[in-house]
Structure formats: structure tokens, C-alpha cells
Amino acid sequence: MRLSRRVAALAVAFGTMFATVACSSTEEPGAGSKKVEVFTWWADGGEKAGLDGLVGVFKTDCADYEFVNGAVAGGAGSNAKQVLASRLQQNEPPDTFQAHAGAELSDYINDDQLEDLSAQYTEWGLGNAFPKGLIENLTVDGKIYSVPANIHRANVLWSNKTVLAKAGITKDADTLDGFFADLDKLKASGVATPLALGKDWTQQMLFEALLISKLGPEKFNGLWNGGTDWKGADITAAINDYKKLLTYTNKDRDTFDWTDAEKLLMDGKAAYQLMGDWEAADLDAKGFKDYGWSVFPGNGNVFQWLADSFVLPKNVKNAEGTKCWLKTVGSATGQAAFNQKKGSIPARTDVGTDGFPAYQQAAMGDWKTATQVPSCPHGSACAQGWQGAVGSAQGKFSADGDVAALQTALAAAAAEFGSKK
Amino acid sequence: MRHRRRTWIPGLLLISPSLILLAVFVYGLIGWTVNLSLQDRHNARPAKGYVGLDNYTKLFTSDINDRFAHSLQNLVVFTLVFMVGTIVLGLVWALLLERRAKAEGFWRTVYLFPMAVSFVASGVVWRWLMNTGQGDDAGGINAIFHGLGLGFLESPWWTDPDWGMAAMAIPAIWQLSGYVMALFLAGFRGIPEELREAAVVDGATTFQLYRQVLFPQLTPTILSALIITGHMSMKMFDLIMSVSGAQWLTEVPAVYVWQTLLTRDYAKAAAISVFLLLIVAVVVVPYLIHVNRSEKRS
């Protein structure tokens, strides 16, 4: 007993020591009531340009406040998330931070670190500006905690037009069977691995696109909110189809990131790749013009979305300034300025398509009429623990192709991390 | 009394800074981690209470896909291949140099040099060398095999589900063999010349000289080499992260800790860390006791 108390005392001593260290090092940016520290991992490329566009609007709309850039570069956000986690732990939150909209926020909501923004949604009229499906996906127990700055689409099938033409494919398939038939045609025309694929999380994206085709949007939504059973026979059938789909993909997929798979498409070694619509901006940047796109065969008008959003953490130094930032993020001018540069589309449906590239204009049209479903690897459908478990399970399946094991693992992950209904 | 006090006080004062630093930053933090591993802190909120050894037993009973057991299995393959590989290569190189090879100093540097490179840097290069493309897509070593018409030697390297971790050990062997060679060389040089001369006078062949006289003298060296490579291997993280990144195929406990930490499961990450510390301690502590005893004896 004495010993454990001593251990506890020691632990407390360390805790306070680190708290002091953290305070002294992070006091600077948020100090002063006029400054708004915006914490992101947008440090370069199109993301930085988008942020700059947003800041431009903020400077005119919120002239009373001063923008402070709290970007942490590197690791596709994993570095930033570590820094953020420790700052939140020490109760030294930035005035606002970037987070994937949807279920990934539940980590912060459950930790009681975010303020409810429902009142602001009404005040700013966001409830009508965003599509109903998005509002439903964002709402947690009747409350909304974030303002999405943009929308990306995950279920897009990219193609190399020349390779398709060579195999005699002139029309995009709109059913799974049609897709398999096209893949067979491509194989026959000499493309050994017509579907380019990368490692674990990209595999999960492909699997989810296939699930949408097999289950339809309602049952697919149910997978993430507890309404659909992961152990069902329809899931087994989907995994078997997915296994068949893997036979058309490159064997070294586990060594590939999505950009490596993209290169297979550009080099004509593959005809198709399923990837989010950030691929359009990337292909444009790389000067590859010969690409086509369609929604994944069988997905119909389902729009699998993911979004970056901003939040109002509890105990911030400048809550009013943060609200002004969030208002800018949610405004039509703010969303236009941000998304034209970043290569995504506005979450609002009332932003004009002028000034957007071809792909984005088409996606903005789809967004208004589509059925919205979330994505797990991108945080709109599941929190980080769930994402990790699912990615690992897909990595294993890619190596051993064990259908029963994948289904058990996915069901176990849903039971461990999903909502307890 | 006064005299005795005078002798120990300055000594204590002198080592007290390092003692305090060690107490706080090594043993204090170990204690903190152990304490954390016994609580139910699976998110950023403060823990609700202590759960005993639950976090440890769950690693073995209810981890999805037996992920932890799989990471341990990977670690065993990696460690065995790495240790055997470095010892064998190190010994062979040491034997060659020990036979008074020409330009010994040059070769010693050549073999020892890879150790100066960080695992991250060599990992990036080996990631390319162990490119898994085969046939016409081959890159790195596979491309060399392909070009030489030795296509049957092309390998999936670290992506092989069963033996991938053996391939992952190759860069580590490449880096550490030189160091083991240096250990053995020092061991050979530490054996008195008289022993060799006596053996030669007794008419021993070269083989007999090594087998009966020199190798038995090297036991402590081999033990050191095993301990040093063994504990390095068990903590392996940077090499794997730069060759394959964090993923199922090549996951070892250290990588798993990182992945768990990223998903904010602090208690589970702490439990894996403590487990890793324990298995390293099982190897290192008996060795330290052994060294301590033999030093006292001599």
C-alpha cells in the first residue's frame, strides 16, 4: 500500500513537471485576446494554398482578430495529432484545430474536449446550406461539434483512357458484374494486373466501395452505427467478391502507397485505380491528362464523403475569435476560396461552380443530389482505434486471403470500437 | 569516523547528478509506465481506475486477429535470423583478418563502416534494394538477378507472409556484422601468444588450434555479441518503419506500441512497452549479473 502510494505520488510529480514544460513552451501563440491560433497539418502544397485562401477571407471578415498559423508539418497529420493530443491533455488547446469530420471527432467528444456548435449552425444558417445527409452523418446525440471546410469523395474509380481503348472498353461499367467483365477483357488484352492497389488503408477503401455496391447505402451506413451485422451472410459474400477483385490487382500492393499505385495507372501498367478525388489534383499536377473517372461500379448516386473540419475546443483563450474563424470556414466565400486551391469541393451546396476545375464541377453537381455515406479509413465513419484495427485486418487479408478471419476481425473491431447500441 | 565520511561524501556528490537523472528519467518513467499499464486509460480522459493485469492478459486472449502474438512471432523470426547471421558473418570476417590478412586496417574499416550509418538511412536504401517487383517489373536486387538470368532467385523479400521477417533482418545483419567482427577480433587478440605457440609445438593442426585452443577462449565474446545483438533486435523499430512502414506483415511489438499510441490507447501501449522491457530484461539482467560476478572474481 505504502509503495503504491509512493508510485502514485511519483507519477503525479512527473505529471506536473511535464505540464509545466508543456505550458511554458506553448503559451506564446494563443496569448492575447485578439489572436486566433489555427492548428492544422496543412504546411505545404495545395493544402497550404487552400489555407492561405481561407486566411485571406478571414482577414477581411474578421478584421478584429489576428490569424496565428499553428501548422505542424509531416507524417500526413500523424505528427500534428501527437502534438495536439498532448496539448489537449495539458489543457492548453489551440483556439481551433483541424480534424476529420464525423466519427473521428468522437475521440474528442467522448473526452469532453469540444463545445457544441448547434446554436451557431442555426445562427449562421448552416443547417440549410449543407446537404441533409451530411448533417445526419455529423450529428452526435443531437449535437454538432464541427464545421466542415471541404468535401472529398472516396468512391471514385480512376482510369487510363488509352489502356481502356486498347482493350475495347468504351463505356464505364455501372454494375459489379460489368466491372469484372471489363477486368477480364483487360487481362485478355495483355494487362496482367488491371486494377492498381496500395497498402492496407487503400485496400479498405476498395473493400468499402464494393460493400456499397453489394449492400446499398442504408445497410452500409448501418455497418458504422450498429444497424447492420458484420457477421451476416451478405458480408461473407462481399468479402468473397473482394477476394476475387484482389486477383486483378498488383501482387506487390503491400509495398505501395497510393501514389505508387497511381504511377502504375499513369504508366499504363494498370487501367483502373480506386482512390479519393484528391487524385485529380495530383494527376493534373503531374501533367497526366489521359485519365477518366467514374463512380465505383454499382455505387449509383452514392457519394462516399470525407471532410476536414474545424472545431471549438473547451477552455480556449479566444472563443469569440474562434467562432469568427468557424463562421468564415462555413461561409460561401470562405469555402470557395479554400476549395478552389485545395482541389476539393465546398460542403455547402450554394457555392457557384465558376473557377473550379472540370472534375470538381462534376463532383459539386453530384454532391447536391447524391446519397451521402461516410468512409472508415478517412475518419468520417469510424474513430482512430477502429481505423487502426481495420487497416491491420486488411493487411493480413492481403497476405493470406482468409475470408473467415477477415470477417471475424471486422466484426470484432466493430464490437470493440463501434457505438454500443 | 571523520576520515571515513570524507572519503564517501565527495564520491557521492560527484555521481549524484547522474544518479538523479537516472532515477527520474529511467526508473521514474519505467514506474510511471508500469502504473499506466495497470489502469483502464484507453483514451485521453483520466483513468477510471486500476484493472490489474487485464491489459496484459487481453494482449493474448482478445487481441483482434491475435495481432500481438503475430508481432511476437515476427520478432522471434527476425531476432533468430539477425543473431545467427551477424555471429556467423562476424566470425568468418574475424577469422579472415585474424590470419594476418594484407591491409587489415583497411578491411576492418570497410566491414565496420556500415555501423556508422543510421537504421533509417540504410532502411531507405534497402527498401529500394529489396524491391518486390519481379520479372520485367523487377527493381533493386531482383533486377540484378533478372539481368543475370538468375530469375529463380528473385524474391518477394519482406512481403512473404512466413519468411518476410528473415528478409527484413538482412539490412540489420549487414550493419551489425562488422561490429561483431570487431568484438571477435578483440577476443582473438586477447588470447596470449604463448597458447598458440604451445599448441604449435605440441603439433596441433590449424583446425585443432582453433577448435581446441582459441574458440574455447572466445566464449565470453560470443556471449557479449549475443546479448548486444539480441537486445538491439528486440527493440527494432526504425529499420522496419523505413523499409516497410507500419503494417501487419512486418509488425513487431515496438511498432505496435507506436500504432497503439497513435490511436490514443495509452494503457495498452504501456502494457506492450512493459512486456517488451521484461523480455529484454530476461536476456540482459542475467548477463549483467554474470559479468559483475566474474569481475569481482578477477
UniProtKB/TrEMBL annotation, chain A:
Pfam families: SBP_bac_8 (PF13416). InterPro entries: Bact_solute-bd_prot1, SBP. Its main location: other. PROSITE patterns: PROKAR_LIPOPROTEIN. Residues 1-24 form the signal peptide. It is found in: Cell envelope. Keywords: Signal, Transport. SUPFAM superfamilies: Periplasmic binding protein-like II. One of its GO terms (cellular component) is cell envelope. Belongs to the bacterial solute-binding protein 1 family. Part of a binding-protein-dependent transport system for a sugar. This is Probable sugar-binding periplasmic protein.
Automatic annotation (TrEMBL), chain B:
Its main location: membrane. Residues 72-287 form the ABC transmembrane type-1 domain. Keywords: Cell membrane, Membrane, Transmembrane, Transmembrane helix, Transport. The keyword Magnesium does not apply. SUPFAM superfamilies: MetI-like. Belongs to the binding-protein-dependent transport system permease family. This is Sugar ABC transporter permease. It comes from Catellatospora coxensis.
